[in-house]
Structure formats: C-alpha cells, structure tokens
Specification:
By secondary structure, the chain is α/β, with parallel strands linked by helices. It contains twelve helices and nine strands. A nine-stranded mixed sheet has the order 1-2-6-5-4-3-7-8-9, with helices on both faces.
C-alpha cells in the first residue's frame, strides 16, 4: 500500500499524535500491517503508550480507504502527505507538523514565500482597510496571503489578496468539505476560482470544534515566512498565531495603521515587545532584505 493510503487511514485513528502517525506510516507497508493496530496491544507495541480511544477494527479499515478516496474524488478533495514533494516546505520544519493536508484547489508553489495576515473577527474600519490594502499589495507582487477564512480581518485579507492577483490560501479548523463559517462560502468559492487553495489537516466530515482553531493557527503561521497581525484584542486568536510564529522562528509584524485602534491592545503589546510595524509589501520585503520584491 502506498504511504499516502496509510496516512489517509491513520488520519481516522483516534488519539494518535501527528508524530505517531508519521512514525507508523514509515513502519507499516500494507493494510495487513495496519490491521495490527486494531488491537490496543498492537498499538502500544509500536507507539509505546496506551491510546485514549480504541482504534477502528480491521473490518472497518478494509472498507474505509475505498470509501474515503471515492468521497474525496466526488468532492474534488486532494491529499498531500508529509513525505511528498508538494507538502509546504516551511510547514515541514515546525514542531508537530501535520502528517498530511486535505485540500481543494491548488497548493501554493514553493518559489515565493507566503505571508499570513490575521486579526479580530470584529475589526474597526481602519482594520478592514489595512487588511485589504496590505494583502492586495502583496498580491500585486505575486505573494499569496494565508489566513483562516473567518469573518473580519481574515476575510478582508483573502479579498484583498484576490483583488491584487494573489492566490490566497485559507486554512480551516474542520474538514474542507465543510465551509466554516457558512457566511464566507462565496469567498471560499472565489479563492478556488482564482487559483487559490482551501486546506486542513482534518479529514472530510470533521466539524469545526472550538479546540481545533488554536491547532489550525500553527499551520497558518507555519506555512508562512512572516505573520502580520492587523488588529487583535486581548486573548485574540491572532495572538495565538503570533505566539506560534515566534516559536517557529517566523517574522512577526503588526500593521502600523491600526496601532492606535481601541480594538488592538494585542497588536500594541506585540509592537512594544519588538514586532516591527509594516503597512505595505515594500515594508515586508525590506524587512526580508529584498526591497525589490519578487516580480
């Protein structure tokens, strides 16, 4: 069995970490080997620990891969695993990288870096304008913006990037067959129509539960060379993304035009801690040492 099929099956194993999925995918060659994991004893012997939930039975495994692949083909969903060339290279470097990504559309190329633009779901007018204009400017220079398809800053970052000709990337905290929030379904369609991508580490059918959003944020920052926080209240999810960015060694910026916003205490705190303020693609490229851009 090909590694991609093993990883597709492991995606449905409850209680496994991403590192354990990768370890097992290298140890197992076929469904017969994988069926050993239908027993708790078999799983413990390979991973060295007792899982919280019992894995699927062998009879379930045998029909799962065929139905999963059929459903993915029907919905236009593809899968790229950690060991394949198409896997985002910077994401491979982070702590706890996803063992694979389910996606619709086209994965971003590796020739140009990506920039994450994130912020609050309830932005000010200045925040909306800042997210749109920066992302549009990046798009004009051929740089794709990564965000989370949420209402507010995320949505305007995607819209601006598309307006500038960028191939925007939306990372979901659920299966890519579930567009969340539903109010951004048209935006998701526009991302796909213009050559962008919607992706997730979660298999089709997985719902957007609360605890999955912080884990999603490590992918948003992990795919990117830099993260720009446009407007972030205290305890904002954007600050979780910024924390991941710092852990991952990514450049962390704030938007200069929203530093005085009442809705941006989180952004001001990052700035006080040393995050540089930017307002254009030129500012970002200058910080990278390539002010000429990537045209």
């Amino acid at each position: 069995m090909a590694p991609v099929e093993i990883l597709l099956l492991l995606a449905d194993f409850p209680g496994l970490t991403e590192a354990e999925k990768l370890f097992l995918s290298e140890k197992l060659d076929n469904i017969e080997d994988l069926a050993v994991l239908s027993s708790i004893e078999g799983l413990v012997s390979l991973t060295g620990r007792l899982p919280k939930k019992k894995p699927p039975e062998r009879s379930v495994l045998e029909g799962l891969i065929e139905s999963r692949l059929k459903g993915m083909r029907r919905s236009g969903i593809q899968f790229v695993h950690f060991f394949s060339d198409g896997y985002p290279p910077l994401l491979r470097e982070i702590y706890d990288p996803p063992s694979g990504l389910f996606y619709r559309g086209c994965l971003p190329g590796t020739e140009k870096p990506l920039v994450s633009v994130v912020g609050t779901r309830s932005p000010s007018g200045d925040g909306v304008s800042a997210a749109f204009s920066l992302s549009e400017d990046l798009g004009r220079h051929g740089v794709s913006v990564v965000s989370g398809l949420a209402f507010g800053i995320d949505a305007f970052a995607h819209r601006g990037n598309i307006s500038g000709g960028g191939l925007s990337v939306a990372v979901l905290a659920c299966g890519v067959d579930i567009l969340y929030p539903r109010g951004n379904s048209c935006l998701a369609g526009k991302i796909l129509e213009t050559g962008g991508c919607i992706l997730s580490e979660y298999p089709p059918g997985v719902p957007p539960l609360k605890y999955r959003f912080p884990r999603r944020n490590r992918i948003i920052s992990g795919m990117s060379r830099s993260v720009v926080v446009v407007e972030a209240p205290e305890k904002s999810g954007a600050l979780i993304t910024a924390d991941f960015a710092l852990e991952q060694g990514r450049d962390t910026f704030v938007h200069s035009e929203t530093l005085d916003s009442r809705r941006n205490p989180g952004g001001r705190f990052l700035h006080e801690q040393g995050a540089a303020a930017v307002s254009s693609a030129f500012d970002v490229f200058s910080a990278w040492g390539c002010a000429g851009g990537f045209d």
